[in-house]
Amino acid sequence: MGTTTRSAAALAALALAAGAAHAGEEKVKLKDAPGLDKVRGVCVACHSLDYIPLNSPFLDEKQWRGEVNKMAKVFGAPVKPEDVDPIVAYLAKNYGRR
Amino acid sequence: MTTRRRFLAMGAGGIAVPALSSLSLPAWAATPWQPGELPEGTLATGILEKLPGKVPLIKRSYRPPNFETPVDYFRNPITPNDAFFVRYHLAGIPNVDAKGWKLRVHGDAAAGTLELDLARLKKDFEPAEIVAVCQCSGNRRGLSNPHVAGVEWGVGAMGNARWKGVRLRDILAKVGVKDSAVEVAFDGADGPPLAATPDFRKSLPMARALHESTMIAYEMNGAPLPHWNGFPARLIVPGWTGTYWMKHVVDVDVRSHPFESFWMNPAYRVPAGKFHGIEGFPSQQNATSQPITDIVVNSLVTSLRDGQRFHRGQTVDVAGIAWDGGRGIRDVLVSPDSGRSWHPAHLGKDLGPYSFRPFRYQFRAATPGPAVVMVKAVNARGDTQVSDLIFNPAGYHNNVVSRIQIEVA
């Protein structure tokens, strides 16, 4: 239980905490394959990478593209347009429906 | 239809281990059992991990934290606070100080405004208590066939607690509600990691906001709420799914217009007309979909595992819990023979219509070979569990009749 209040200080702490790793997530190991660097660069801004294996292996490429687009358009993920294809390719190839 | 279950239980490291036999099944298993129908990747990453202040729970994601209660905790109708599941959409989770916490009540359809700290909330209003199930809308999503994207919950994104707090309608009466009010919207102290991400906010129709069971709760099972379950106060909406149970609630907005938010539409919707008997949400529904509302009747067997072996003449103990959206459980029916005959189970203590209701039925294993034990709950309105999954894109409302394969040798 915290000692800070929901003050400017707490909001600053919140902003810091949001981008920071939570204990344990460093243990998540994704498959080492082309595109992994881009996945890491974008996805960890908001969530741990275990969301990817958690959602596998049942999404096809179209469905993974839908997820990536949702993250960009609805959740505001900082993904460059030119990085969408490599990220989708990585997800579909390594964590997609077989 | 979810008839096929793998004869495997998953160990803590995601390693398949033989299913526990009836003789070796411990009261509190050290490794989490997970349904075999979960996606492979879900089973492999669903390890036991400990959040501060919690017992080891089944980790679905580290950040935001999504942690599921292992099935053995449901052997008791009340879920302990330190084993209660944890679900966040967004990773900006502040530590809220009880002294600094304030609840702001306002809105264009409120007659005035009110700011309540915890001391005033407890002092100025009559306390109320209720035992109620908090079940994530997405509980059992991982069992959807075909699988759908999201947090791939097994059966443990739920818990049952005795909540203490203040009725929301008493707070609304104090602030005054205009005739123009259509919804009440809620916000919690937690927020998104990026400014561009929609903050998690939800609304309720007036009828539910003014329902006598809807409360701002500050105690859970006789103790302050755990941080991970919404300290120091959360909204509780008995009968309705967990998405409405705003944690760390700080803002109550009485509105004359429907609340527009990603989290009301397109998120948390069920296709129109697909689930019979669920409550409507007039100000938020349209021709194609409506918000998820009340919990459908369901049950969970906690005493048996798929593949469990019995010898002839041995007693098969079929025990578990049943619940629904507040009408109350009338019957739990058990079939020892793949649905040919059904027998009423003995119902345990009634803790109220929003609570888990324990049940138990015992029979003697007679015919050698495989057998399927089936269980379905019936609520006071006569609603029962479905034989086949009602597929929907978000994987909600999975209340398929339980089918557990046992072996008699």
Please describe what this structure looks like.
The complex is a heterodimer of chains A (about 100) and B (about 400). With about 100 residues, chain A is mainly α. Chain A has a domain at about 30-95: Cytochrome Bc1 Complex, Chain D, domain 2. Chain A is built from 5 helices and no strands. Chain A has helices at about 10-20, 35-45, 50-55, 60-75, 80-95. In chain A, helix 4 crosses helix 5 (about 80-95). Chain A is globular. Chain B has about 400 residues and is mainly β. Chain B folds into 3 domains: about 10-85, no CATH class; about 100-290, Sulfite Oxidase, Chain A, domain 2, CATH 3.90.420; about 300-409, Sandwich (Immunoglobulin-like), CATH 2.60.40. Chain B is about 5% helix and about 35% strand. Chain B is built from 4 helices and 27 strands. Chain B has helices spanning about 40-45, 120-125, 170-175, 205-210; strands at about 10, 15-20, 50, 55-60, 65-70, 85, 100-105, 115, 125-135, 160-165, 185-190, 200-205, 215-220, 225, 235, 250-255, 270, 290, 300, 310, 315-325, 330-335, 345, 345, 355-365, 370-380, 400-409. In chain B, the strands form 7 sheets. Chain B has a 5-stranded mixed sheet with strand order 8-7-16-11-12. Chain B starts with 7 loop residues before the first strand and ends with a strand. Chains A and B meet through helix 1 and helix 3 of A and helix 1 and strand 4 of B.
